[in-house]
Amino acid sequence: MGWAAAFYVTGSVSLIWCLIWFSAMHSKPAHHPRISREELQYVENAIRSSGTSSKGPPRIPWKNIATSLPVWAIIICDMGNTWGISLFNAQLPTFMKNIFGFNITMIGFLSALQFLSRYLGGMTISVLSSWILKHGYFSIINTRRVFSAFSQLVPAVMLVGLIHTGCNSVAIVAIICIAFLFNGAVSSGHVINHHDIAPNFSGTLFGINNTFFSIVTLIVPVVTGVLIDGQQTLDQWRKAFWICVPMYVVGEVFFLFFLSGTVQSWNSSEPETPALTPLTTTVDTSEIFPNKHDDPSNKL
């Protein structure tokens, strides 16, 4: 079947996944036919305590979102992260083939290995992050800072190491895997921060974030192509890697300065009900009882 097999297999797996998802997912926890009473109560209590509205879809505060520094902190950090991810996802096969002569089997293995590293890192660090928050060792904002720094700064350092490694293919593969292992910490860093600042609009914020994600994924191959300029040499590829380093660092520094760990005021977008002013009426009794105050007999 050749190349067609790759598309048939992945398409079939995606279709099976969709069928399972549609059969297992429901709009609300209470609608799930197999949820226990204890689990339902636990989920509903968690929703109430998280600040998430249980009412219908709230009005989206677009202006507040567009002018929120914590929102832009997440977006800019993720743009730097996306630059690195896109560089490796889209360009790594070309780099390994033209510089080290890897065949398609080895390239496929390396591509799978980097994602496996990221998956293992993400799962392990997520458990650690939850444990830290549960025991109160760090606040939410400091937890996000720590793991976001791991996810961005470690890959930046690894890229510098990759640039100076030379033609040692084993060392380069190890460096890439370490970078992706720590990059898995995004799941406990800036990515989850949407829910921290606006649980009612976390889906909307994630969608906005992914719009910028898509823009970066369009730019990276173009910039890389201009830098390589048809010259498949290690020196030319180093230029592309050097561009990626400040993307990681600048995005992370911006996030560290402007992130928030608390729910924003605009998370509840319903307009506030104005306070009722007590109605007072002044009655001029002199018009009702004329000469009352002038008659000496009325005085006590």
From TrEMBL:
Subcellular localization, as worded in the UniProt entry: Membrane
Gene3D superfamilies: MFS general substrate transporter like domains
InterPro entries: MFS (IPR011701), MFS_Na/Anion_cotransporter (IPR050382), MFS_trans_sf (IPR036259)
Membrane topology summary: Multi-pass membrane protein
GO biological process, one term: monoatomic anion transport
GO terms, molecular function: symporter activity
Membrane in keyword set: yes
Keyword Ubl conjugation recorded: no
Membrane-spanning parts: 6-24, 99-117, 153-186, 206-228, 240-259
Keyword annotations: Membrane, Symport, Transmembrane, Transmembrane helix, Transport
Pfam families named among the record's database cross-references: MFS_1 (PF07690)
GO cellular component: membrane
Name the record gives this protein: Inorganic phosphate cotransporter
